[in-house]
Amino acid sequence: MAKAYVFLANGFEEVEALTIVDVLIRGGVDVTTVSITDNENVTGAHGITVVADQVWDEADFSDADVLLLPGGMPGTSNLFEKRELCELVKQHAESGKLTGAICAAPLILGGLGLLRGGRNATCYPGFEQYLTDANYTQEVYTVDGNIITGNGPAAALPFSYAVLRAIQGEETANTVAEQMMFLKLMEK
């Protein structure tokens, strides 16, 4: 079973973090939420407190297939300040493993040099300046090899299905999207 880690920092965008967790679990992915602090209670940008599955010091990422960074402010800044997380993300992505970031969080990928060489990426408008040497697509979500980026809270579902598609395949992603009535919504 594929293993995904979703990182939570105070100020994270709740809909982005919880949507990806929900969609991946529905698609048969083993998901663990990780607080980057020493407290499992993490409060999002809109005051919603979530209890993470693990705190940073308890986690072992050796089984990680996917690393995911939700956006939100100051959540993204808090993630980017966690040096150990940045080292983990950089090593993971450079080894060709699936890495995703949504909203403001693609700035972390840009800041780590993971988008250099004109890789395609999207983000929340106004953060494109941090996508160092990337091709800013302005799309709802963008897939470029092992990097998936999304542009904001409204992209949470399409971004999540793109991640699920990359992990479990088209059929599983479409089945989950259909069960969640997403495909019916897109027909309008």
Summarize it.
This protein has seven helices and eleven strands. It is an alpha/beta fold and 188 residues long.
In terms of topology, how is this protein built?
Layout: E1 3-8, H1 14-26, E2 30-35, E3 41-43, E4 49-51, E5 54-55, E6 66-69, H2 75-81, H3 83-94, E7 98-102, H4 106-111, E8 120-121, E9 135-136, E10 141-144, E11 147-150, H5 156-168, H6 170-179, H7 182-187
Parallel strand pairs: 1-2, 1-6, 2-5, 6-7, 7-11, 8-9
Antiparallel strand pairs: 3-4, 10-11
Helix pairs in contact: 1-5, 5-6
Describe the protein in words.
This protein is of the alpha/beta class. Helix content is 36%, strand content 22%. It is built from seven helices and eleven strands. The radius of gyration is 15 Å and the shape is globular. The mean pLDDT is 96.
